[in-house]
Structure formats: C-alpha cells, structure tokens
C-alpha cells in the first residue's frame, strides 16, 4: 500500500554520533540538543519544495510524557517552526492510546502497534498542509498513522521530517520511503 503522506525526508542515518545524540535527547534529558539538532531539520526542509501551513510533533501518550517529562519530537519541531515562521501545534494531533515502544519490533509489528493510535483535530488541521516532525523513522508506520489521522480530520496533505532514518539489517526499506 502506498504511503498516505506525500514524502518523508531525514537529515542522516541513525548510527554513530547522531544515534548517540538522539539517545541523549530522548533518554538522558539533554534538552538543549533539541534546538541544536533542530537546526539540521531546518537545513533539510529548506532543500525541499514543500510549502506547509502547520508543523506538528509526533505526540507521546500521556503515560510516556509523564515518564519522560517532555516530548523529544516537540523539542525538535518547535525551533523549526520558529525559524521558518510556520505555526506550530501540540494540540492538532494527539496519541489516543498508549503504545509499546517501537524499538526492536519488526515492520509488521510496528504497523500493528501504532494502528489507530492517533487522532487529529479538524479545528487545527482542516485544509492545511501539515509537516509532522519526529526524531527517527524506521518503517514509516508512525508517520503513516499520523497522516491517516490528519487526513481524516481534513488536512490537505502531510509531509514527514525526521532527524534520522533507521534501517533493518535483515529487511529491505519499505516502499515509499525517500532517502536524502
């Protein structure tokens, strides 16, 4: 099945120093990295021909947000929105059920894990071209489900922007993913 989103771009591969930086941001409370790493997302976005109306981070479940204390995707997305002067919202897209971490799951299990996990607000997204920001994309299943919710709420189209792209050593990348 083709992706519901128009395109997905990432700044780098999920390996080495970039992987370490993402882990520091995500698991070690190194919040200052959000702005520093967000700069790379700005560089990627400026190379695209995308014209977006709204930037939204991939939301965490309330449980995960309480555990971590912050959403790393928001820390990446907010500086992008400020620099590009594009509206930013953490209210436009919500995670409506807690999901297991995607780490270690096979492609099929990732799809099942996030199926129907998101709901978007038509108040925020109707007739908008939405940019969804996250830290890492592997199969694109999270972005696919975010796009489904956004389009169901009336978004015109959806693009994805991540800091890193991970791959499965034993699988081919899913069709529809575009590497930069």
Q: How would you describe what is shown here?
A:
With 180 residues, the protein is α/β, with parallel strands linked by helices. 39% of the residues lie in helices and 19% in strands. The strands form 2 sheets. It has a 4-stranded parallel beta sheet with strand order 1-6-5-2. The model is unreliable at 169-180 (pLDDT under 50).
- Physical arrangement of strands within the biggest beta sheet: 1-6-5-2
Cα end-to-end separation: 22 Å
**Overall morphology:** globular
Quickly count the domains: 1
- Class in CATH? Alpha Beta
Number of strands: 6
Biggest pleated sheet = 4 strands, parallel
What percent of residues are in strands? 15-25%
Element string (H = helix, E = strand): EHHEHHEHEHEHE
Please identify the oligomeric state. single chain
Q: What average pLDDT do the residues reach?
A: 85
Keyword list:
alpha/beta, single chain, disordered C terminus, four-stranded parallel beta sheet, 180 residues, two-stranded antiparallel sheet, Rossmann fold, 7 helices
SSE diagram, text form:
Blueprint: E1 7-13, H1 16-27, H2 33-47, E2 54-57, H3 62-68, H4 72-84, E3 93-95, H5 107-114, E4 118-120, H6 122-125, E5 129-137, H7 141-152, E6 157-165
Parallel strand pairs: 1-6, 2-5, 5-6
Antiparallel strand pairs: 3-4
Helix pairs in contact: 2-4
Briefly characterize the structure.
With 180 residues, the protein is of the alpha/beta class. It has a single domain (7-165), classed as Rossmann fold.
């Amino acid at each position: 099945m083709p992706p519901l989103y128009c395109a997905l771009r990432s700044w780098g591969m999920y390996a080495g120093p970039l992987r370490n930086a993402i882990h520091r941001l995500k698991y070690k409370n190194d919040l200052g990295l959000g702005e520093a790493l967000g700069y790379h997302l700005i560089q990627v976005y400026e190379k695209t021909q995308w014209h977006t109306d709204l930037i939204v981070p991939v939301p965490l479940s309330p449980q995960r947000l309480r555990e971590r204390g912050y959403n790393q995707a928001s820390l990446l997305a907010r500086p992008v929105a400020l620099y590009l002067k594009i509206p930013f919202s953490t209210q436009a897209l919500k995670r409506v059920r807690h999901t297991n971490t995607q780490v270690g799951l096979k492609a099929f299990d990732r799809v099942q894990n996030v199926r129907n996990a998101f709901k978007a607000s038509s108040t925020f997204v109707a007739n908008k071209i939405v940019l969804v920001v996250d830290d890492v994309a592997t199969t694109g299943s999270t972005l696919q489900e975010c796009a489904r919710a956004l389009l169901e709420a009336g978004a015109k189209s959806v693009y994805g922007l991540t800091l890193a792209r991970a791959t499965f050593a034993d699988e081919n990348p899913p069709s529809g993913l575009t590497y930069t």
